[in-house]
Amino acid sequence: MASWVSAVIFLGVAGLSFVMSVKGLGARRLLPFHQNASGREWASFTADEQAVALALTRSLGLGFLVAGLSLVGAAIAAMLDAVAMASVLAGVACVFCAGLAVINRRLSVATQTSTPWRGSVYAAVLIVVAIVIVIAFG
To answer: Domain count of the chain?
Structure first.
């Protein structure tokens, strides 16, 4: 019974994390409280400053997405065997790596600055390979 109570709590917090992830990943400008904290109007930021601010805001959204997925994994951990749980946790890491690649690639294009987006792509691909191996042979 305690594991079900924990699962419900995990899923509730995951739901809140998913709401915040949508706000962060879908942002087209700073979130209102970040805007207020900056003390500046969005239009006063240079294009490069806006690109960096959006990359950071979207990274925040990505973090909330990963937290939500992790909490879903925690909620179902008691019901899964070790191979399945390894795949779920690795999948969460893959979501982060792939999302980070997209965010950094967009920042690179917007600012003509070199970012390490390819490394995140390679990491995501390697994680997928490892998931396939653990499922096939685990």
So the answer is: 1
